Amino acid sequence: MYGPRGAMLGSGGVSDGYEVGSKRQRMMESNPYFAVSSGTGSLPYGYAGGFQPPPFPVVRLRGLPFNCTDIDILKFFAGLTIVDVLLVNKSGRFSGEAFVVFAGAMQVEFALQRDRQNMGRRYVEVFRCKKQDYYNAVAAEINYEGIYDNDYHGSSPPPSRSKRFSDKDQMEYTEILKMRGLPFQVTKSQIVEFFKDFNLIEDRVHIACRPDGKATGEAYVEFVSAEEAKRAMSKDKMTIGSRYVELFPSTPDEARRAESRSRQ
Q1: Per the domain annotation, does 75 fall within a domain?
Q2: Domain span at 222
Q3: Final residue before a domain boundary, out of 126, 145, 164
Q4: Which has the closest alpha carbon to 94: 133, 141, 24?
Q5: How far is Cα 164 from Cα 141, in angstroms, rounded to an integer?
Q6: pLDDT, tens only, 229-261
Q7: CA distance 147 to 145
Q8: Are residues 136 and 15 in the same domain?
Q9: pTM, whole model, 2 decimals?
Q10: Do 177 and 107 belong to one domain?
C-alpha cells in the first residue's frame, strides 16, 4: 500500500511529496479536474452552457522496473508538472504499472511522446487511460490499506473492517511487515519493544522519512521468517504511546522503495 504510494508535485519538482496519501482525497474534491459528476449534481462553475471540461490529464504506465520508485517516475517525466503518482500494487506487490496525473491536458500530450523510452534496462509503455481507471486504482489502494473509513466517496463502499482483517489473513506473507500510524517521534527501540514477544531482526527496522528528514509515520520491520511476521500481526491495532498502529504484510521491494525515498 507505498501508500503513501505517490508524489504530489509542482513545476516539475517535488513539493512535500510524501503526504499525498492523506492529501489525495481533498485534492480530488477541490480540484475541478477531479470533480465527479453523479449525473444529477451541478457542474463546476464555468462548465455550464454546454461547455465540456478538458479531458482528465492522466496516463498509465506499464513495464516499470519492479524496484521503481516515485522519484524514478518524476525523473522519467522531467520538465512536466505532475500532480500525483500512484504505483499500482496487487496483493501487496508492485505490479509494474502506475498512474500519473499531470497539471493539464497539454502535459499529457508531451508525456505520451515518452512512450517506449527506457527506465533502466526496461522500456516503459505510456498510454492514455480514463479518469475512472485512475479512480478505481485509488479505490483499490484505499480498500487494501483500510483507510478513509469515514469519508470514503467512491462509487461503491469500502469493504467492512472485519472483511479487511480477514483479507490480511489470506494474503501471502514475507518476513516483512509495514507499520502505519506511528508517532512521528517514534524510535527504533520503541518498535523493538513493541515486538518484544516476536523474533524481530533489530537492525532491519527502517523508519520511513521524507526527503526533508521528517518521519512519515510509517516503518518497515523484518522478522526471521514469514511465519513469524504473520504471528506478529497479532499486534495489529495495538498502541505505541497514545497512537494505535496498523500492520500490513509487505515485501522486500516495497521496503526498498521506502528506504530509497528516505535517502533522496
Answers
A1: yes
A2: 172-263
A3: 145
A4: 141
A5: 12
A6: 999 999 988 888 877 788 888 888 888 888 877
A7: 6
A8: yes
A9: 0.45
A10: no
